[in-house]
Design brief:
Two copies of one chain form a homodimer. Chain A has ten helices and no strands. With 207 residues, chain A is an all-alpha fold. In chain A, helix 7 packs across helix 10. Chains A and B meet through helix 8, helix 9 and helix 10 of A and helix 8, helix 9 and helix 10 of B. Chain A binds a DNA duplex (30 and 30 nucleotides) through helix 2 and helix 4.
Chain lengths: 207, 207
DNA sequence: CAATCTTTTGAGAGTTACTGTCATTTGACT
DNA sequence: AGTCAAATGACAGTAACTCTCAAAAGATTG
Protein backbone atom coordinates (compact mmCIF):
# COMPACT_ATOMS: atom_id res chain seq x y z
CA UNK A 1 0.00 0.00 0.00
CA UNK A 2 2.07 2.85 1.36
CA UNK A 3 3.03 5.21 -1.40
CA UNK A 4 0.44 3.93 -3.81
CA UNK A 5 -2.42 4.68 -1.44
CA UNK A 6 -1.40 7.88 0.17
CA UNK A 7 -3.58 10.86 -0.63
CA UNK A 8 -0.53 12.60 -1.98
CA UNK A 9 -0.15 9.82 -4.50
CA UNK A 10 -3.52 10.61 -6.01
CA UNK A 11 -2.29 13.68 -7.79
CA UNK A 12 1.15 12.22 -8.23
CA UNK A 13 0.07 10.18 -11.21
CA UNK A 14 -1.83 12.11 -13.85
CA UNK A 15 -0.30 9.66 -16.30
CA UNK A 16 -2.22 6.79 -14.77
CA UNK A 17 -5.36 5.82 -16.64
CA UNK A 18 -8.77 6.20 -15.06
CA UNK A 19 -8.86 2.48 -14.53
CA UNK A 20 -5.67 2.46 -12.49
CA UNK A 21 -6.79 5.42 -10.46
CA UNK A 22 -10.08 3.75 -9.65
CA UNK A 23 -8.30 0.63 -8.54
CA UNK A 24 -6.19 2.65 -6.17
CA UNK A 25 -9.28 4.37 -4.85
CA UNK A 26 -11.11 1.11 -4.32
CA UNK A 27 -8.17 -0.41 -2.52
CA UNK A 28 -7.92 2.62 -0.32
CA UNK A 29 -11.65 2.68 0.34
CA UNK A 30 -11.60 -0.93 1.46
CA UNK A 31 -8.66 -0.45 3.78
CA UNK A 32 -10.05 2.74 5.26
CA UNK A 33 -13.42 1.16 5.89
CA UNK A 34 -11.76 -1.88 7.40
CA UNK A 35 -9.50 0.06 9.75
CA UNK A 36 -12.41 2.18 10.89
CA UNK A 37 -14.62 -0.81 11.59
CA UNK A 38 -11.82 -2.72 13.28
CA UNK A 39 -11.28 0.25 15.54
CA UNK A 40 -14.98 0.46 16.37
CA UNK A 41 -15.94 -3.17 16.84
CA UNK A 42 -12.72 -5.13 16.74
CA UNK A 43 -11.18 -7.28 14.06
CA UNK A 44 -12.92 -10.56 14.73
CA UNK A 45 -16.30 -8.93 15.18
CA UNK A 46 -16.12 -7.34 11.75
CA UNK A 47 -17.14 -9.65 8.90
CA UNK A 48 -15.72 -9.00 5.47
CA UNK A 49 -19.24 -8.50 4.18
CA UNK A 50 -19.63 -5.49 6.41
CA UNK A 51 -16.33 -4.06 5.27
CA UNK A 52 -17.53 -4.44 1.69
CA UNK A 53 -20.74 -2.71 2.58
CA UNK A 54 -18.92 0.16 4.28
CA UNK A 55 -16.54 0.52 1.35
CA UNK A 56 -19.44 0.36 -1.07
CA UNK A 57 -18.17 -2.60 -3.04
CA UNK A 58 -19.25 -6.20 -3.28
CA UNK A 59 -17.68 -8.87 -1.05
CA UNK A 60 -16.19 -10.42 -4.17
CA UNK A 61 -14.30 -7.25 -4.84
CA UNK A 62 -12.82 -7.18 -1.37
CA UNK A 63 -11.44 -10.65 -1.87
CA UNK A 64 -10.17 -9.69 -5.27
CA UNK A 65 -8.10 -6.90 -3.75
CA UNK A 66 -7.09 -8.76 -0.61
CA UNK A 67 -6.85 -12.54 -0.81
CA UNK A 68 -7.51 -12.83 2.91
CA UNK A 69 -8.99 -10.63 5.56
CA UNK A 70 -5.60 -10.51 7.22
CA UNK A 71 -4.06 -9.03 4.12
CA UNK A 72 -6.21 -5.95 4.52
CA UNK A 73 -4.15 -5.15 7.58
CA UNK A 74 -0.83 -6.74 6.77
CA UNK A 75 -0.11 -5.88 3.17
CA UNK A 76 2.82 -3.50 3.08
CA UNK A 77 5.76 -2.44 0.98
CA UNK A 78 8.47 -2.53 3.61
CA UNK A 79 10.58 -5.24 2.03
CA UNK A 80 11.73 -3.24 -1.00
CA UNK A 81 12.60 -0.36 1.32
CA UNK A 82 14.74 -2.57 3.50
CA UNK A 83 16.33 -4.25 0.53
CA UNK A 84 17.30 -0.94 -1.03
CA UNK A 85 18.63 0.36 2.27
CA UNK A 86 20.89 -2.63 2.76
CA UNK A 87 22.10 -2.67 -0.81
CA UNK A 88 23.05 0.97 -0.31
CA UNK A 89 25.55 0.06 2.40
CA UNK A 90 29.21 -0.11 1.37
CA UNK A 91 30.39 -3.60 0.53
CA UNK A 92 33.23 -3.32 3.01
CA UNK A 93 30.85 -3.14 5.95
CA UNK A 94 30.32 -6.30 7.97
CA UNK A 95 26.95 -7.98 7.52
CA UNK A 96 25.77 -7.14 11.04
CA UNK A 97 26.66 -3.52 10.59
CA UNK A 98 25.03 -3.36 7.18
CA UNK A 99 21.89 -4.86 8.67
CA UNK A 100 22.00 -2.40 11.53
CA UNK A 101 22.32 0.65 9.32
CA UNK A 102 19.90 -0.67 6.74
CA UNK A 103 17.27 -1.52 9.30
CA UNK A 104 17.58 1.78 11.10
CA UNK A 105 17.44 3.75 7.87
CA UNK A 106 14.38 1.98 6.54
CA UNK A 107 12.59 2.17 9.86
CA UNK A 108 13.21 5.89 9.84
CA UNK A 109 11.78 6.12 6.34
CA UNK A 110 8.69 4.22 7.34
CA UNK A 111 8.24 6.41 10.40
CA UNK A 112 8.56 9.55 8.30
CA UNK A 113 6.19 8.23 5.73
CA UNK A 114 3.19 7.03 7.69
CA UNK A 115 3.44 6.63 11.41
CA UNK A 116 -0.30 6.46 11.72
CA UNK A 117 -0.53 3.39 9.62
CA UNK A 118 2.39 1.77 11.39
CA UNK A 119 0.62 2.45 14.67
CA UNK A 120 -2.65 0.90 13.58
CA UNK A 121 -0.97 -2.06 12.04
CA UNK A 122 1.29 -2.87 14.96
CA UNK A 123 -1.49 -2.41 17.47
CA UNK A 124 -3.70 -4.86 15.60
CA UNK A 125 -0.77 -7.21 15.18
CA UNK A 126 -0.35 -7.30 18.89
CA UNK A 127 -3.98 -7.73 19.80
CA UNK A 128 -5.28 -10.13 17.19
CA UNK A 129 -3.74 -13.60 17.30
CA UNK A 130 -4.66 -14.34 13.70
CA UNK A 131 -2.77 -11.26 12.58
CA UNK A 132 0.20 -12.06 14.79
CA UNK A 133 0.45 -15.51 13.27
CA UNK A 134 0.09 -14.22 9.74
CA UNK A 135 2.64 -11.49 10.33
CA UNK A 136 5.14 -14.07 11.51
CA UNK A 137 4.55 -15.96 8.32
CA UNK A 138 5.22 -12.78 6.39
CA UNK A 139 8.51 -12.35 8.24
CA UNK A 140 9.81 -15.62 6.87
CA UNK A 141 9.29 -14.22 3.39
CA UNK A 142 11.12 -11.04 4.26
CA UNK A 143 13.82 -13.20 5.75
CA UNK A 144 14.28 -15.03 2.49
CA UNK A 145 14.75 -11.72 0.76
CA UNK A 146 17.33 -10.55 3.26
CA UNK A 147 19.14 -13.85 2.95
CA UNK A 148 19.47 -13.32 -0.78
CA UNK A 149 20.87 -9.85 -0.33
CA UNK A 150 23.34 -10.91 2.32
CA UNK A 151 24.32 -13.93 0.30
CA UNK A 152 25.48 -11.63 -2.46
CA UNK A 153 27.40 -9.55 0.03
CA UNK A 154 29.18 -12.38 1.72
CA UNK A 155 29.58 -14.76 -1.17
CA UNK A 156 27.76 -17.45 0.75
CA UNK A 157 24.91 -19.42 -0.78
CA UNK A 158 21.47 -17.96 -0.07
CA UNK A 159 20.44 -21.07 1.83
CA UNK A 160 23.48 -21.05 4.08
CA UNK A 161 22.41 -22.16 7.51
CA UNK A 162 24.29 -19.58 9.51
CA UNK A 163 23.01 -16.86 7.25
CA UNK A 164 19.44 -17.97 7.74
CA UNK A 165 19.92 -18.10 11.47
CA UNK A 166 21.31 -14.60 11.61
CA UNK A 167 18.48 -13.23 9.53
CA UNK A 168 15.69 -14.99 11.39
CA UNK A 169 17.13 -13.91 14.72
CA UNK A 170 17.26 -10.30 13.57
CA UNK A 171 13.68 -10.29 12.36
CA UNK A 172 12.38 -11.98 15.46
CA UNK A 173 14.19 -9.52 17.70
CA UNK A 174 12.95 -6.56 15.72
CA UNK A 175 9.44 -7.85 15.86
CA UNK A 176 9.69 -8.31 19.59
CA UNK A 177 10.98 -4.78 19.94
CA UNK A 178 8.04 -3.55 17.93
CA UNK A 179 5.66 -5.38 20.24
CA UNK A 180 7.36 -3.83 23.26
CA UNK A 181 6.92 -0.45 21.67
CA UNK A 182 3.22 -1.10 21.20
CA UNK A 183 2.82 -2.22 24.77
CA UNK A 184 4.40 0.98 25.97
CA UNK A 185 1.78 2.95 24.11
CA UNK A 186 3.85 3.50 20.94
CA UNK A 187 5.27 6.58 22.58
CA UNK A 188 8.99 5.86 22.95
CA UNK A 189 11.74 6.44 20.46
CA UNK A 190 11.37 3.47 18.15
CA UNK A 191 14.67 4.05 16.40
CA UNK A 192 16.56 4.02 19.66
CA UNK A 193 14.70 0.93 20.77
CA UNK A 194 15.65 -0.93 17.62
CA UNK A 195 19.19 0.24 18.02
CA UNK A 196 19.32 -1.25 21.49
CA UNK A 197 17.75 -4.41 20.18
CA UNK A 198 20.46 -4.88 17.61
CA UNK A 199 23.02 -4.17 20.31
CA UNK A 200 21.77 -7.10 22.32
CA UNK A 201 22.13 -9.35 19.31
CA UNK A 202 25.56 -8.06 18.40
CA UNK A 203 26.91 -8.60 21.89
CA UNK A 204 25.88 -12.25 21.82
CA UNK A 205 22.65 -12.12 23.80
CA UNK A 206 24.38 -11.37 27.07
CA UNK A 207 22.13 -9.77 29.63
CA UNK B 1 0.41 -35.29 23.69
CA UNK B 2 3.69 -37.06 24.11
CA UNK B 3 3.71 -39.10 27.26
CA UNK B 4 -0.02 -39.12 27.69
CA UNK B 5 -0.60 -40.68 24.30
CA UNK B 6 2.23 -43.11 23.95
CA UNK B 7 1.23 -46.75 23.86
CA UNK B 8 3.42 -47.32 26.87
CA UNK B 9 1.35 -44.80 28.77
CA UNK B 10 -1.75 -46.94 28.36
CA UNK B 11 -0.68 -49.41 31.02
CA UNK B 12 1.10 -46.74 32.97
CA UNK B 13 -2.14 -45.53 34.54
CA UNK B 14 -4.29 -48.30 35.99
CA UNK B 15 -5.41 -45.70 38.49
CA UNK B 16 -7.05 -43.69 35.75
CA UNK B 17 -10.79 -44.15 35.47
CA UNK B 18 -12.32 -45.67 32.37
CA UNK B 19 -13.46 -42.22 31.36
CA UNK B 20 -9.95 -40.81 31.36
CA UNK B 21 -8.60 -43.75 29.47
CA UNK B 22 -11.24 -43.38 26.81
CA UNK B 23 -10.43 -39.74 26.40
CA UNK B 24 -6.81 -40.57 25.84
CA UNK B 25 -7.80 -43.20 23.30
CA UNK B 26 -10.09 -40.85 21.44
CA UNK B 27 -7.46 -38.16 21.31
CA UNK B 28 -4.95 -40.62 20.01
CA UNK B 29 -7.37 -42.01 17.45
CA UNK B 30 -8.05 -38.55 16.08
CA UNK B 31 -4.41 -37.66 15.78
CA UNK B 32 -3.47 -40.98 14.23
CA UNK B 33 -6.25 -40.72 11.67
CA UNK B 34 -5.31 -37.13 10.93
CA UNK B 35 -1.62 -37.83 10.43
CA UNK B 36 -2.40 -40.75 8.19
CA UNK B 37 -4.79 -38.76 6.02
CA UNK B 38 -2.46 -35.77 5.88
CA UNK B 39 0.27 -38.06 4.66
CA UNK B 40 -1.98 -39.56 2.01
CA UNK B 41 -3.79 -36.53 0.65
CA UNK B 42 -2.15 -33.53 2.21
CA UNK B 43 -3.24 -31.24 5.00
CA UNK B 44 -5.40 -28.80 3.09
CA UNK B 45 -7.10 -31.52 1.09
CA UNK B 46 -8.25 -33.29 4.24
CA UNK B 47 -11.42 -31.85 5.76
CA UNK B 48 -11.98 -32.27 9.46
CA UNK B 49 -15.13 -34.20 8.68
CA UNK B 50 -13.10 -36.88 7.01
CA UNK B 51 -10.71 -37.05 9.94
CA UNK B 52 -13.68 -37.52 12.21
CA UNK B 53 -14.99 -40.26 9.98
CA UNK B 54 -11.63 -42.02 9.91
CA UNK B 55 -11.30 -41.75 13.68
CA UNK B 56 -14.85 -42.96 14.12
CA UNK B 57 -16.09 -39.97 16.06
CA UNK B 58 -18.34 -37.08 15.21
CA UNK B 59 -16.93 -33.82 13.86
CA UNK B 60 -18.09 -32.13 17.04
CA UNK B 61 -15.87 -34.42 19.03
CA UNK B 62 -12.83 -33.56 16.96
CA UNK B 63 -13.36 -29.89 17.67
CA UNK B 64 -13.91 -30.65 21.31
CA UNK B 65 -10.48 -32.26 21.53
CA UNK B 66 -8.70 -29.86 19.21
CA UNK B 67 -10.03 -26.32 19.02
CA UNK B 68 -8.60 -25.92 15.54
CA UNK B 69 -7.45 -28.25 12.82
CA UNK B 70 -3.95 -26.90 13.30
CA UNK B 71 -3.93 -28.01 16.90
CA UNK B 72 -4.20 -31.61 15.79
CA UNK B 73 -0.69 -31.26 14.46
CA UNK B 74 0.80 -28.65 16.73
CA UNK B 75 -0.29 -29.55 20.22
CA UNK B 76 2.73 -30.69 22.18
CA UNK B 77 4.20 -30.83 25.63
CA UNK B 78 7.62 -29.47 24.90
CA UNK B 79 7.37 -26.37 27.04
CA UNK B 80 7.34 -28.12 30.42
CA UNK B 81 10.32 -30.19 29.32
CA UNK B 82 12.30 -27.11 28.41
CA UNK B 83 11.25 -25.30 31.54
CA UNK B 84 12.37 -28.17 33.75
CA UNK B 85 15.64 -28.49 31.88
CA UNK B 86 16.49 -24.86 32.37
CA UNK B 87 15.46 -24.79 35.98
CA UNK B 88 17.78 -27.71 36.50
CA UNK B 89 20.80 -25.64 35.50
CA UNK B 90 22.93 -24.23 38.31
CA UNK B 91 22.07 -20.67 39.28
CA UNK B 92 25.67 -19.59 38.78
CA UNK B 93 25.53 -20.31 35.07
CA UNK B 94 25.05 -17.38 32.73
CA UNK B 95 21.64 -17.13 31.08
CA UNK B 96 22.97 -17.93 27.60
CA UNK B 97 24.76 -20.98 28.88
CA UNK B 98 21.73 -22.13 30.84
CA UNK B 99 19.63 -21.75 27.73
CA UNK B 100 22.16 -23.65 25.70
CA UNK B 101 22.35 -26.58 28.07
CA UNK B 102 18.63 -26.58 28.73
CA UNK B 103 17.72 -26.47 25.09
CA UNK B 104 20.17 -29.20 24.13
CA UNK B 105 19.05 -31.42 26.98
CA UNK B 106 15.37 -31.09 26.22
CA UNK B 107 15.86 -31.56 22.51
CA UNK B 108 17.73 -34.75 23.30
CA UNK B 109 14.84 -35.89 25.46
CA UNK B 110 12.33 -35.19 22.73
CA UNK B 111 14.46 -37.03 20.19
CA UNK B 112 14.74 -40.03 22.49
CA UNK B 113 11.05 -39.98 23.18
CA UNK B 114 9.42 -39.77 19.80
CA UNK B 115 11.48 -38.89 16.77
CA UNK B 116 8.74 -40.10 14.48
CA UNK B 117 6.29 -37.58 15.75
CA UNK B 118 8.87 -34.79 15.65
CA UNK B 119 9.57 -35.72 12.06
CA UNK B 120 5.93 -35.64 11.00
CA UNK B 121 5.28 -32.45 12.85
CA UNK B 122 8.25 -30.55 11.53
CA UNK B 123 7.69 -31.71 7.99
CA UNK B 124 4.11 -30.50 8.05
CA UNK B 125 5.23 -27.29 9.71
CA UNK B 126 7.52 -26.63 6.83
CA UNK B 127 5.12 -27.50 4.06
CA UNK B 128 1.83 -26.05 5.24
CA UNK B 129 1.76 -22.26 5.56
CA UNK B 130 -1.16 -22.32 7.96
CA UNK B 131 0.80 -24.56 10.29
CA UNK B 132 3.94 -22.49 9.98
CA UNK B 133 2.03 -19.39 10.96
CA UNK B 134 0.31 -21.10 13.84
CA UNK B 135 3.57 -22.59 15.08
CA UNK B 136 5.12 -19.16 15.15
CA UNK B 137 2.24 -18.03 17.28
CA UNK B 138 2.87 -20.92 19.63
CA UNK B 139 6.50 -19.88 19.92
CA UNK B 140 5.53 -16.55 21.40
CA UNK B 141 3.78 -18.42 24.17
CA UNK B 142 6.81 -20.58 24.81
CA UNK B 143 8.85 -17.42 24.78
CA UNK B 144 6.73 -15.92 27.51
CA UNK B 145 7.39 -19.00 29.62
CA UNK B 146 11.13 -18.83 29.07
CA UNK B 147 11.09 -15.16 29.95
CA UNK B 148 9.51 -15.95 33.28
CA UNK B 149 12.11 -18.57 34.08
CA UNK B 150 15.01 -16.38 33.07
CA UNK B 151 13.52 -13.47 34.94
CA UNK B 152 13.76 -15.46 38.16
CA UNK B 153 17.34 -16.39 37.37
CA UNK B 154 18.53 -12.92 36.60
CA UNK B 155 16.37 -10.91 38.93
CA UNK B 156 15.06 -8.89 36.04
CA UNK B 157 11.35 -8.31 35.54
CA UNK B 158 9.68 -10.85 33.25
CA UNK B 159 8.77 -8.16 30.74
CA UNK B 160 12.28 -6.78 30.53
CA UNK B 161 12.91 -5.78 26.95
CA UNK B 162 16.39 -7.22 26.61
CA UNK B 163 15.22 -10.45 28.12
CA UNK B 164 12.39 -10.71 25.64
CA UNK B 165 14.71 -9.98 22.77
CA UNK B 166 17.13 -12.67 23.83
CA UNK B 167 14.39 -15.22 24.18
CA UNK B 168 12.64 -14.43 20.91
CA UNK B 169 15.93 -14.51 19.04
CA UNK B 170 16.75 -17.91 20.50
CA UNK B 171 13.40 -19.40 19.56
CA UNK B 172 13.47 -17.97 16.07
CA UNK B 173 16.97 -19.30 15.48
CA UNK B 174 16.05 -22.72 16.80
CA UNK B 175 13.01 -22.84 14.63
CA UNK B 176 15.05 -21.89 11.60
CA UNK B 177 17.54 -24.61 12.43
CA UNK B 178 14.69 -27.08 12.63
CA UNK B 179 13.48 -26.00 9.22
CA UNK B 180 16.96 -26.46 7.80
CA UNK B 181 17.03 -29.91 9.28
CA UNK B 182 13.75 -30.77 7.59
CA UNK B 183 14.96 -29.46 4.26
CA UNK B 184 18.01 -31.68 4.50
CA UNK B 185 15.75 -34.69 4.87
CA UNK B 186 15.80 -34.78 8.68
CA UNK B 187 18.88 -36.91 8.47
CA UNK B 188 21.61 -34.81 10.06
CA UNK B 189 22.57 -34.60 13.72
CA UNK B 190 19.92 -32.28 15.08
CA UNK B 191 21.67 -31.78 18.40
CA UNK B 192 24.86 -30.68 16.71
CA UNK B 193 22.91 -28.39 14.43
CA UNK B 194 21.24 -26.69 17.34
CA UNK B 195 24.56 -26.39 19.08
CA UNK B 196 25.97 -24.57 16.07
CA UNK B 197 22.90 -22.41 15.94
CA UNK B 198 23.37 -21.25 19.49
CA UNK B 199 27.01 -20.64 18.72
CA UNK B 200 26.07 -18.18 16.01
CA UNK B 201 23.88 -16.32 18.47
CA UNK B 202 26.46 -16.33 21.23
CA UNK B 203 29.13 -14.93 18.97
CA UNK B 204 26.96 -11.98 18.06
CA UNK B 205 25.67 -13.06 14.69
CA UNK B 206 29.01 -12.74 13.00
CA UNK B 207 29.31 -14.75 9.82
C1' DC C 1 -27.63 -53.41 41.88
C1' DA C 2 -30.41 -49.68 41.11
C1' DA C 3 -31.16 -44.83 40.91
C1' DT C 4 -29.16 -40.64 40.25
C1' DC C 5 -25.73 -37.42 38.92
C1' DT C 6 -22.14 -35.85 35.83
C1' DT C 7 -19.50 -35.92 31.86
C1' DT C 8 -19.03 -37.04 27.12
C1' DT C 9 -20.93 -37.48 22.78
C1' DG C 10 -23.54 -36.73 18.43
C1' DA C 11 -26.84 -34.30 15.66
C1' DG C 12 -28.15 -30.21 13.58
C1' DA C 13 -28.43 -25.40 12.65
C1' DG C 14 -25.89 -21.17 11.93
C1' DT C 15 -21.82 -18.03 10.93
C1' DT C 16 -17.92 -16.65 8.30
C1' DA C 17 -13.94 -16.85 5.41
C1' DC C 18 -13.05 -17.98 1.38
C1' DT C 19 -13.38 -20.08 -4.06
C1' DG C 20 -15.12 -20.37 -8.68
C1' DT C 21 -18.25 -19.12 -12.35
C1' DC C 22 -20.72 -16.15 -15.29
C1' DA C 23 -23.19 -12.32 -16.96
C1' DT C 24 -22.96 -7.28 -16.78
C1' DT C 25 -20.66 -3.07 -16.57
C1' DT C 26 -17.04 0.12 -17.61
C1' DG C 27 -12.74 2.08 -19.05
C1' DA C 28 -9.48 1.75 -23.21
C1' DC C 29 -8.49 1.95 -27.89
C1' DT C 30 -9.45 2.42 -32.97
C1' DA D 1 -19.49 4.69 -32.52
C1' DG D 2 -17.89 0.16 -31.95
C1' DT D 3 -15.07 -3.32 -30.29
C1' DC D 4 -12.08 -5.34 -26.83
C1' DA D 5 -10.29 -6.23 -22.27
C1' DA D 6 -10.56 -5.61 -17.60
C1' DA D 7 -13.28 -4.91 -13.39
C1' DT D 8 -17.37 -5.78 -10.92
C1' DG D 9 -21.36 -8.04 -8.72
C1' DA D 10 -24.48 -11.81 -7.99
C1' DC D 11 -24.63 -16.45 -6.79
C1' DA D 12 -23.60 -21.08 -5.55
C1' DG D 13 -20.56 -23.97 -3.01
C1' DT D 14 -16.99 -25.54 0.48
C1' DA D 15 -14.92 -25.92 4.92
C1' DA D 16 -13.68 -24.38 9.49
C1' DC D 17 -15.54 -23.44 13.25
C1' DT D 18 -19.55 -22.25 17.18
C1' DC D 19 -23.69 -23.16 19.84
C1' DT D 20 -27.38 -25.71 21.59
C1' DC D 21 -29.68 -29.66 23.12
C1' DA D 22 -30.91 -34.29 23.81
C1' DA D 23 -29.13 -39.03 24.18
C1' DA D 24 -25.49 -42.19 25.81
C1' DA D 25 -22.19 -43.73 29.10
C1' DG D 26 -19.17 -43.66 33.12
C1' DA D 27 -19.14 -42.37 38.18
C1' DT D 28 -21.36 -42.32 42.64
C1' DT D 29 -24.33 -43.21 46.35
C1' DG D 30 -27.92 -45.72 49.11
Amino acid sequence: MASAETPSAAQAGPRLGLRERKKIQTRQAIRRAAYRLFEQQGYDATPVDRIAEAADVSPSTVFRYFPTKEDIVLTDEYDPVLEAAIRARPAAETPVEAIRQGVLASMQRILDHDVTELRQRTRLMREVPALRARAAEGMTESARMLCTVLAERTGRPADDIELRIVVSAVFAAMNEALMCWVEQGQTGDLIALIGRTLDVLARGLTL
